[in-house]
TrEMBL record, chain A:
Single GO MF descriptor: branched-chain 2-oxo acid dehydrogenase activity
Low complexity composition-biased segments: 1-26
Bias-annotated ranges (Pro residues): 27-42
Record-annotated Transketolase-like pyrimidine-binding domain positions: 105-280
Top-level EC class as recorded in UniProt: oxidoreductase
Family annotation (Pfam families): Transket_pyr, Transketolase_C
UniProt region (Disordered), positions on chain: 1-62
Catalyses which reaction(s): N(6)-[(R)-lipoyl]-L-lysyl-[protein] + 3-methyl-2-oxobutanoate + H(+) = N(6)-[(R)-S(8)-2-methylpropanoyldihydrolipoyl]-L-lysyl-[protein] + CO2
Name of the protein in its database record: 3-methyl-2-oxobutanoate dehydrogenase (2-methylpropanoyl-transferring)
UniProtKB/TrEMBL annotation, chain B:
Catalytic reaction(s) noted: N(6)-[(R)-lipoyl]-L-lysyl-[protein] + pyruvate + H(+) = N(6)-[(R)-S(8)-acetyldihydrolipoyl]-L-lysyl-[protein] + CO2
EC category name: oxidoreductase
Lineage: Eukaryota, Fungi, Dikarya, Basidiomycota, Agaricomycotina
Species of the source: Calocera cornea HHB12733
Function recorded in the entry: The pyruvate dehydrogenase complex catalyzes the overall conversion of pyruvate to acetyl-CoA and CO(2).
Family annotation (NCBIfam families): PDH_E1_alph_y
Obligatory cofactor(s): thiamine diphosphate
Protein name, per record: Pyruvate dehydrogenase E1 component subunit alpha
EC annotation from Swiss-Prot or TrEMBL: 1.2.4.1
Length: 438, 399
């Protein structure tokens, strides 16, 4: 007889989805959390004033999102912001922001602003891509050619592999190369150049050469009607290419700060801009030259019951899901157990997808013991798979529930069903509830 | 009726002219003046009239100015490069070099000739057969051999190996067929943008010439009128497939379409030298890109695991070696023109052999890279992720 009973295969019990807690069929009640360190006092964001939803209830959309910093003061207090002041610029006393200005910008204006600063401050900087001299299909390069000359901001042919290779050559010569791939769906012809040349040049030259000055920008994620070739999220494909960084901003302020940091980072960076946020996300953005740190996730809403981890567009769906959790509309009212409505969910924006901020994620999950990852890209081999595996490896005994992933389906992005493809608020809510009740 | 017959026959005549292949013998250059006593005094040579074929361009002058000094230098370098490649061959067969190794034995006239026609400021990027370029562009034989052996003294500190050797004027070999060509175009743009009087030579083979990105690069280079010379080293075989079996048009110098081309006898180092000098001048005069095709031959297989005899006959290789060898060709010139005697050339051979042997011995003494170097040079120092996984389960390197 073996000392231990043989291990049985874990068979998950069939679980009803979104069942009312009062239903006699509902088999689970939330387990009290294991004794742990006292939850850190939740520090609401400066602009996150508690305010009940309007009568009838509406979901926060990107336009009304509280994740956006819509006041000057909130914008200037963005966490971990670093200022690159000109020597003669008006500078504030530490801790005050009396002299700094902000301007209302949407994401494409913020991206343009970042590139204008890069071009202005760095003579070697060049911006090129398909139609960028005309302003680009998303207007990210509006009037840059007029302002900085057509020698520095120029159109390339429709030649993605060539653009990437060309940018790598430029960057290897020490030039700041800011290349645009018109849609991230078109990045695949350039995949070889990015993975085999850009990512590996430093290593394979023993440090003699590098393309740290290369930044490849591309719009990513869905717009609701992009279909197969205009709504993809290719970030997961690059996860194995050590040597490059992948950055995805969530808002105008983030886009400007992270893009300037990416352009100046001494490693090649692929900067993927969620295209639906180009116009819909509007924030006060500091007009000065500033950067936000790469490789650092940002805790947007502190919590202790569950960690909700995402990046780019789905962050706003996460926000909507949390709103549904707190105050479910009548149609969902019976399906959201009242005891869970006050659960404090920690919302984290990963920001840098590679190398991702393992310490911040681990710190959060060690505290909340539950993790739900949300991204638009398909599930198989996605970013969520990598994070889930790493978290389960390191925090297996602390987890109260399996790490769940809410992602796009493993299909091409379907034109007619795009709204069903993306992880929307209800799917996120469902996963959050299931994980809380596990 | 006669008129229509003549009109119909015209394309035929044209095709016949195109079909006339470029000279590929290594010893068809003639002395055009007396050889001077002094080693530094120039004298004239005349290239064979079929040493060059032009496409949408005139060909360079067939009159070449050389000095005894220069010819002896070319001879020494070609001999040393062949010796180095042969040493790599032996080290590979002795299992001291592992992995990939592609040798350029037979193609010495192209690498040494290219180097002789450019200046230190010009830039070169190539793909697989990069060892001679790495040495000639500021590296060392020891650095190349040590890199192949995977040692610390290698030019990429043993982290690259064959195909991954760089110098400040040489953007390396490359393991991805054709990937170096758009990178070369980007380098040329940086030169043009910075206003440097320099030319980029982006090299590729007849095999890579069918890659899409080569054509993407042609287009961009012509569009932006870049000082970029695309150099096709046509050694007749892309891995195990002959040019005729892989390319619908084997006249690689014509494949730039709107970019002028020049086909060159790549077995005669004098022709290579003249063509490179001319191409460089042309690019510096803002005449835009050029496709320069060197018709050459690779004696060995594609890589060390390819005997090189399954897709061509031993007789073919033997014939190329005995009649068109670039080193023997130059040797014959030197003797015929009274530049050096057989004994003097033997001394040069001996010196080259000794230099390579010494370099090999020194390279062998170099230690292997340290374990910590597995994780260095992935990201810029100080910007790495907090940790990276290592070779074994649970081996994790914390930065």
């Amino acid at each position: 007889m073996p000392a231990h009973p043989p291990r049985t295969l874990f068979i998950p019990r069939p679980r009803p989805r979104l069942l009312p807690a009062s239903s006699p069929l509902a088999p689970f009640t939330p387990r009290p959390p294991r004794p742990s360190s006292p939850p850190t006092p939740s520090r609401p964001l400066a602009h996150d004033a508690a305010e009940p939803p309007p009568p009838g209830g509406h979901l926060p959309s990107v336009a009304t999102s509280r994740l956006l910093r819509t006041s000057r003061d909130a914008a200037l207090r963005a966490p971990a912001i670093t200022w690159n002041d000109e020597p003669d610029a008006l500078r504030d006393e530490p801790g005050t922001h009396t002299a700094r200005q902000t301007r209302k910008m949407n994401t494409y204006q913020a991206v343009r602003d970042a590139m204008a600063i890069a071009l202005l401050k760095d003579d070697s900087a060049l911006v090129f891509g398909e139609d960028v001299a005309f302003g680009g299909v998303f207007r990210c390069t509006m009037n840059l050619a007029e302002e900085f000359g057509r020698d520095r901001v120029f159109n390339t042919p429709l030649t993605e592999q060539g653009i990437a290779g060309f940018g790598i050559g430029l960057a290897a010569m020490g030039h700041t190369a800011i290349a645009e791939i018109q849609f991230s769906d078109y990045i695949y012809p350039a995949f070889d150049q990015l993975v085999n040349e850009a990512a590996k040049l430093r290593y394979r030259t023993g440090g003699a050469y590098n393309v740290g000055a290369l930044t490849v920008r591309a719009p990513t994620m869905s717009v609701g009607h992009g279909g197969l070739y205009h709504s993809q999220s290719p970030e997961g494909f690059f996860l194995g290419a050590a040597g490059i960084k992948i950055v995805i901003p969530r808002s105008p302020l983030q886009a400007k700060g992270l893009l300037l940091a990416s352009i100046r980072d001494p490693n090649p960076v692929i900067f993927l801009e969620p295209k639906i946020l180009y116009r819909s996300a509007i924030e006060q953005v500091p007009t000065a030259d500033f950067e936000l740190p790469l490789g650092k996730a940002e805790v947007l809403l502190p919590g202790d019951a569950l960690t909700l981890l995402s990046y780019g567009t789905p962050l706003y769906h996460c926000e909507a899901a949390l709103s549904l959790l707190r105050t479910p509309p009548p149609a969902l009212d019976a399906l959201v157990p009242p005891s869970l409505r006050s659960a404090k969910i920690e919302l984290i924006d990963l920001r840098t997808i590679m190398p991702w901020d393992l310490p911040t994620v681990l710190r959060s999950v060690a505290k909340t013991r539950r993790l739900v990852i949300v991204h638009e890209a398909g599930r198989s081999g996605g970013v969520g798979a990598e994070i889930a595996s790493e978290v389960m490896n390191r925090l297996f005994l602390q987890l109260e529930a399996p790490v769940r992933r809410v992602t796009g389906w493993d299909t091409p992005v379907p034109l007619a069903f795009e709204k069903f493809y993306i992880p929307d608020a209800v799917r996120i809510l469902d996963s959050v509830l299931e994980t809380l009740q596990y | 009726m006669l008129a229509s017959f003549r009109a119909a026959s015209r394309p035929l005549a044209r095709r016949a002219w195109l079909a006339r292949s470029v000279q590929t013998t290594a010893d068809s250059t003639r002395l055009a003046s007396d050889t001077p006593e002094s080693h530094s005094e120039p004298f004239k040579l005349t290239l064979h009239e079929d040493a060059f074929h032009g496409f949408k361009t005139d060909i360079p002058s067939l009159e070449v100015d050389v000095t005894k000094e220069m010819l002896l230098d070319l001879y020494y370098k070609m001999t040393a490069m062949r010796r180095m490649e042969m040493a790599a061959d032996q080290l590979y067969k002795a299992k001291l070099i592992r992995g990939f190794c592609h040798l350029a034995i037979g193609q010495e006239a192209v690498s040494v000739g290219l180097e002789s026609g450019i200046t230190w400021d010009d830039l070169v990027i190539t793909a697989y057969r990069c060892h001679p370029y790495a040495v000639l562009r500021g590296g060392s034989i020891k650095g190349v051999i040590a890199e192949l052996l995977g040692r610390q003294d290698g030019m990429s500190h043993g982290k690259g190996g064959s195909m991954h050797i760089f110098t400040p004027r040489f953007f390396g070999g490359n393991g991805i067929v054709g990937a170096q060509v758009p990178v070369g175009a980007g380098i040329a743009l940086a030169q043009k943008y910075s206003g440097h009087k320099k030319v980029t030579f982006a090299l590729y083979g007849d095999g890579a010439s069918n890659q899409g990105q080569v054509f993407e690069s042609f287009n961009m280079a012509k569009l932006y009128n870049l000082p970029c010379v695309f150099v096709c080293e046509n050694n007749k075989y892309g891995m195990g497939t002959s040019a005729e079996r892989s390319s619908a048009n084997t006249q690689y110098y014509t494949r730039g379409d709107y970019i002028p081309g020049l086909q060159v006898n790549g077995m005669d180092i004098i022709a290579v030298h003249q063509a490179v000098k001319w191409a460089r001048e042309r690019a510096l005069n803002d005449e835009g890109p050029l496709v320069l095709e060197f018709v050459t031959y690779r004696y060995g297989g594609h890589s060390m695991s390819d005997p090189g005899t399954t897709y061509r006959t031993r007789e073919e290789i033997q014939q190329m070696r005995s009649t068109q060898d670039p080193i023997r060709g130059l040797q014959r010139y030197l003797e015929e023109w009274g530049v050096a005697t057989e004994d003097q050339l033997k001394d040069i051979d001996k010196k080259a052999r000794e230099e390579v042997n010494e370099a090999v011995e020194e390279a062998k003494k170099s230690p292997e890279p340290e374990i910590k170097d597995l994780w260095t040079d992935i990201y810029y120092k100080g910007t790495e992720p907090p940790l990276m996984r290592g070779r074994e389960r649970e081996e994790i390197h914390y930065y």
